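This part of the workshop introduces the protein records we will be handling. Getting from the letters to the tokens is the skill we practise here. An example says more than a description, so a record of this kind follows:
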Amino acid sequence: MKRYIKIYLQIIKINIVKLFIYRANFFTSLLSSVGWGVVGIFTMYLLTLRIGSAYGWSREDLIILAAIYPAFSGIFYMLFARNIGNLPEIIHSGELDSVLVKPIDSQFFVSTLSIDFIQIFRVILSASFIIIYGHFVPIHITIFSLTLSILLCIAGISLLYSIWFLVMTIALWFSTLSNLKDLLYTLVATMRFPADMFYKKQGTLFLILIPFSLALTVPVKVMLERSTLLDLVILLLISSIFFITSRFFWKFALRFYTSASG
């Protein structure tokens, strides 16, 4: 464990250096990141302008859910999305060969090599909005509920990571399917809406959307003290199952990988 912590600290240092080298990219990415966060919150504000509640969520709760989404997705995008999204390119170009011969876990390496620090500003945006919004709308949040919500966000991000990694592992057979990440980005956007709205829908599409929405819905419900013990158990159970499955599927898929040199 200590060895991997040291490796990850080196990865952080390398990415910080890259951040300051490409300054123009820093500012354009910053504007894009914050801009999308603002648009997401404002969109939910407009959608709930004429309603008092939906699917058991009050208008204020829905806005808070949309406000926390930029922070939640921003952390995931910062740590994992770029890495997992580049997996087909790594496989197709033969770079995976050099990864597999390194004395380090291959899944860890391909998942953590790049860190998009720009996404931190989405977290700042979310926190700022909730603090300001709390001055106008009474929001009852305790230290306990906030702490538990943050811990469940970790489980939610783990669930999101596992789903992404499961899907992108398919690239070990079909390395040209780089557009899969575009589909995943679209599915992540559904987290702005409560999972409750998908429970009452029928069809395979809505069934697929439930794990994505659960990743954020449960932590927000806990923070707002609207959750049940069953909500927590479901999120932790699904997160664990998907993570273990993604791990085994990666190991299984590697058996069929044909190296570029082969």
Observations:
- Residues 146 and 203 are 34 Å apart (CA to CA).
- Residues 2-254 form one domain.
- The longest strand covers residues 53-54.
- The mean pLDDT is 83.
